[in-house]
Amino acid sequence: MPQLSIRIDFDDEGRLGPGKVALLERIAQEGSISAAGRSMNMSYKRAWELVSEINKSFSEPLVAAQTGGKAGGGAVLTPHGEELVRHYRAIERKALSATATHLKALQAISRNSRRK
Q1: Whole-number pLDDT of residue 69
Q2: Could you tell me which residue ranges the HTH lysR-type domain spans (predicted)?
Q3: Backbone angles phi, psi at 13, to 5 degrees
């Protein structure tokens, strides 16, 4: 089945797509930017760059990082980060629902459907 991915462009202020949303979800799960990056086979540097880009694209940070200490550092999604993930996933669900028939039609005429 063809996959639909949603990318949202915010004028000149950045973009949001499935990769960044997945990173936000992994940060929420892992409690750490570096652990979230590792779980996605992403370098520590790349994960931090994406988080920085995400935070700069919105009026308030979506990820709050805490530096180390005895218990080590960590990161959490802010309430705005949690809200963004909820809205993005809702948009994704509605888009998939609205396009399901068309995606099936595209699959039927795709090269992969002829191989079966």
Answers
A1: 61
A2: 22-82
A3: -95, 5
Token pair recorded at residue 26: 């992994």
Instruction: Give the chain's largest Cα–Cα span.
Output: 59
DSSP labels, the chain: -------EE-TTS-EE-HHHHHHHHHHHHHS-HHHHHHHTT--HHHHHHHHHHHHHTSSS-SEEEE--STT--EEEE-HHHHHHHHHHHHHHHHHHHHHHHHHHHHHHHSHHHHT-
Q: Nearest Cα to 47, choosing from 56, 69, 39?
A: 39
Residue 115 structure tokens: 């191989």
- pLDDT tens for 39-54 read 999 998 999 999 999 9
Whether 12 is covered by a domain: the verdict is yes
Residue 84 lies in domain: 8-114
Q: Is residue 3 part of a domain?
A: no
Beta bridge partners of 63: 77
